[in-house]
Design goal:
Length: about 110
Amino acid sequence: MPGSGAYVGQLADHARHLQREAREAIARGDYTRASALIGDAELLAEDVHGLVDDIEHRATDRLMGHAAAEAEASDRARRLLAAPPRKSLRLALGATLAMSLALDDC
């Protein structure tokens, strides 16, 4: 299955093909056919434009989602680093300090 870029490329190629056919029809004097081909090419070009906009919006939304998740993870890490030490850690630090003071007296 081709990616969205390949699909857009195929649609753009088809729009150019319609435009070439319209120029050929004008050269032959078949203005009704040329008008219909030009109308089809314009509609297809509008569809391609809309599709490209949709793809860009989805890509932007996806990138914004990644950025938001990254910011949230960064905030979470910052809060963990700024959080006061847990009670068990405070007790261990206190015991270590008490032992070092006791050994200094010896």
